[in-house]
Amino acid sequence: MTATTAPTLESALSDLGATPDALTDEQRARLDADGFLVLPGLFAGDRLEALRARVEELQRAEGPAAGHEVGRQTGAAMLADLINKGESFESVFTEPAVLAAGHHVVGDLRVNSLNFRAALPGEGHQHLHSDWGRPVAGGDYHLCNSMWLLDDFTPDNGATRVVPGSHRWNRAPADELTDPTAAHPDERLLLGEAGTVVVFNAHLWHGGTLNRTDVPRRGLTMSYCRRDEPQQTDQAAHVRKAVYDRLSPAARFVLDV
Ligand SMILES: O=C(O)CCC(=O)C(=O)O
Predict the structure, then answer these.
(1) Is the domain covering 9-255 a CATH 2.40.100.10 domain?
(2) Ligand 1, from 126, 161, 210: best to mutate by most atoms within 8 Å of Cβ?
(3) Which of 44, 47, 65, 233 registers the highest number of CB atoms within 10 A of its CB?
C-alpha cells in the first residue's frame, strides 16, 4: 500500500503552479510598494464568458436574497459563497498568479471568500476603507484581495479607487479622513478591460465609486487570509460534497477543507 503524503503549503502552491516564477520580481516589488498589481487578460475569452453566464444564472435564481451570506449592500448587487455555486469558480481560487500574489502578501494562506459585487447604475460609491479592520505595522498583513473584472472598468462606471502605498501607512482611513467618501488627493481608479485581475493588498485604502452609466459594473472579489485567521466564508462548514470530490488535494488544502 502506498502512503499518501498530506499536502503542505509549499507542495499545494507548487502543485497548483503558484511557484516563484508565477510572478516576476518587478510584479512583487510593485505589489509591495503600491499595494496592487494589475494582471491584464488573465481570464479573457471563454473563462470570462463562463463566469459571466454563471453569475447571471445565479442572480436570476437567488433574486432578492442574493448576497445574504455576507450581508447585502445598498447600491450594489451581491453574490457570496461562490466556490460552492459553480465549477467555473474553482479555477478562480487556484489561479496561479493570483495565488502566488496572495502568498507573497500574507504568507501561510487559505481562501477567505469568493464573492461578487456589481455597482448599480447611479449608485455604488463607498467610503475609502481597508478590508482589515485595524491598521497593522511592519508588513504584518493578514488579508489579500483581488478584483476580477467581469466588465471593463472605466472612469464612469464605478471602477474601484485605491490610494497607492496606503497599506504601508499603519493608519485607518476612518481615523484619518474627515470625509472617507470624498476623493483622496492621491487616489487612482483601477481601470482595465474585462478579463483583467487586479490583486490588491486588502490593507490598502480602497472603495467602489459611483456608477454613472446605465448598466451594472460587475466584479468578483477573491480573497485569501492568513491561515490562522477566521475565513469570511467558513469553507469547511459550507463545502458541498460534489465540489470537495472534484477538487485536487492541493486545492482542498488552499480552501482548507
Ligand atoms: O466593488 C468594488 O469596486 C470594491 C468593493 C469593496 O471594496 C468592498 O465591497 O469592500
Answers:
(1) no
(2) 126
(3) 233
The sign one gets for the Cα dihedral 189, 139, 232, 133 is negative
Which residue reads 474585462 in cell numbers? 194
Q: How far apart are CA 97 and CA 43, in angstroms?
A: 11
The residue whose C-alpha atom lies closest to atom 5 belonging to ligand 1 is: 208
Strand boundaries in the chain, DSSP class E: 36-39, 76-79, 109-119, 143-149, 161-162, 188-189, 197-201, 206-207, 217-226
Residue nearest to atom 6 of ligand 1 (CA): 207
Express each pLDDT in 202-250 by its tens digit: 999 999 999 999 999 999 999 999 999 999 999 999 999 999 999 999 9
Residues in the chain: 257
Extents of the domains making up the chain: 9-255
Q: Do the beta carbons of residue 190 and residue 162 sit within 8 Å?
A: yes
